């Protein structure tokens, strides 16, 4: 099946700076794909290249089987929701939503029916005659979405559309937006720097850094199987550790961490020629016990700091002079903490939870 969007070795430079550097990306029809990365990594520039607001210096962009490179935005079957919503303040909600249909010269009866449908879809029925200043942030966001989808584009591009909302409303809108995309069956390309937002909403995520895609995969792949140290550290929180390859023992391989601590990993994840590796392990995967009489290969450590986070606590652990770990533990009791600053613990790093994100 042909992709809905096919980005073919696209490069975009601003002076000597490559904002997008030979990026290739295929996006399937009906997919919710998120471009995730820090500020300045190239994700918004790629979105603007797809929309036609920027032109590539090299490469080509195909949409729905057609080469649209060089076409202006109005000749591409896409629409965009901007971070600022860009609503017309002097128009009512209904007039804002109708704007694109008027530009397309859709007959009045058909336009009225489609506007009614989309207003119900985004829960704006009853707000037709209000103006943007009379709406909450979430309602203005829904108007912007309704205006973008009512012309029925093949692709909807969304440039950090939830960033202006407060935290609670943002979480609610994340679920609403994903449900809306499923009901429409439309291809969504979403830009954000918020890792939790990307993990919550996406079918697949393209993690960007310095104009290139570091990793493309499902939310589970990106989180549990990061391919680079950057992805491991940027998506969620991770302990990124340097280790020296010691000895292979069948399906296991011994790795020496800073401080001389030895842990075992699955031999299959370490390239045969590797002498040093960079490991990643998520904080919630570190298993702690207060019994250090027999660590059984676990790393002995001391609790240096505890940060209460409600359902969980974040623990900073010190193992000798050269190794620090971050662990996440559930707060199972509201009356007492299982651990206190200064406590000694044993940290078990299970082989199945260690991921190699670099080697030499």
Brief description of this entry?
With 360 residues, the chain is an alpha+beta fold.
Account of the 3D structure:
With 360 residues, the protein is an alpha+beta fold. The protein folds into 2 domains: 5-228, P-loop containing nucleotide triphosphate hydrolases (Rossmann fold, 3-Layer(aba) Sandwich), CATH 3.40.50.300; 237-359, OB fold (Dihydrolipoamide Acetyltransferase, E2P) (Beta Barrel). 23% of the residues lie in helices and 35% in strands. It is built from 8 helices and 20 strands. It has a 6-stranded mixed β-sheet, sandwiched between helices. It has a 5-stranded antiparallel β-sheet with strand order 13-12-11-14-20. The longest helix has 18 residues, at 167-184. The chain is globular, with a radius of gyration of 25 Å. The model has no long low-confidence stretch (mean pLDDT 91).
In terms of topology, how is this protein built?
Layout lengths: L4 E10 L2 E11 L4 E5 L6 H9 L6 E6 L2 E2 L10 E4 L11 H11 L4 H14 L15 H13 L5 E5 L7 H18 L2 E6 L2 H7 L2 E6 L2 E6 L1 H6 L4 H6 L4 E11 L2 E5 L5 E5 L9 E6 L5 E3 L9 E10 L3 E8 L3 E8 L13 E5 L6 E5 L1
Parallel strand pairs: 3-8, 3-9, 6-7, 7-8
Antiparallel strand pairs: 1-2, 1-4, 4-5, 9-10, 11-12, 11-14, 12-13, 14-20, 15-19, 16-17, 16-19, 17-18
């Amino acid at each position: 099946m042909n992709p809905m969007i096919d980005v073919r070795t696209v490069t975009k430079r601003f002076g000597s700076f490559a904002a997008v550097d030979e990026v290739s990306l295929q996006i399937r029809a009906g997919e919710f794909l998120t471009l995730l990365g820090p500020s300045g990594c190239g994700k918004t520039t790629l979105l603007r290249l797809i929309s036609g607001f920027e032109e590539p210096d090299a490469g080509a962009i195909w949409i729905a089987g057609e080469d649209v490179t060089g076409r202006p935005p109005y000749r591409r079957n896409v629409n965009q929701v901007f971070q600022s919503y860009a609503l017309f303040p002097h128009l009512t909600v209904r007039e804002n939503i109708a704007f694109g249909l008027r530009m397309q010269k859709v007959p009045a009866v058909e336009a009225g029916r489609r506007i009614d449908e989309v207003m119900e879809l985004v829960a704006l029925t009853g707000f037709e005659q209000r103006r943007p200043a009379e709406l909450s942030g979430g309602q203005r966001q829904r108007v912007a979405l309704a205006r973008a989808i009512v012309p029925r584009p093949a692709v909807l591009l969304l440039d950090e559309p939830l960033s202006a909302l407060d935290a609670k409303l943002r979480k609610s809108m994340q679920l609403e937006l994903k449900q809306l995309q499923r009901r429409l069956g439309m291809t969504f390309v979403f830009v954000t720097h918020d890792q939790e937002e990307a993990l919550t909403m996406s079918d697949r995520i393209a993690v960007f850094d310095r104009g290139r895609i570091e990793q493309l995969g499902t939310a589970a792949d990106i989180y549990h199987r990061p391919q680079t140290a950057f992805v491991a550290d940027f998506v969620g929180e991770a302990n990124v550790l340097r280790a020296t390859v010691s000895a292979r023992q069948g399906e296991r391989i011994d790795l020496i961490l800073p401080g001389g601590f030895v842990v075992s990993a699955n031999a299959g994840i370490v390239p045969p020629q590797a002498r040093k590796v960079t490991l990643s392990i998520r904080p919630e995967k570190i298993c702690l016990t207060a019994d250090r009489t027999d660590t059984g290969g676990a790393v002995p450590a001391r609790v240096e700091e505890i940060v209460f986070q409600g359902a969980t606590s974040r623990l900073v652990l010190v193992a000798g002079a050269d190794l620090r770990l971050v662990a996440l533990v559930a707060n199972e009791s509201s009356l007492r903490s299982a651990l206190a600053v200064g406590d000694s613990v044993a940290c078990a790093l299970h082989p199945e939870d260690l991921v190699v994100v670099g080697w030499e």
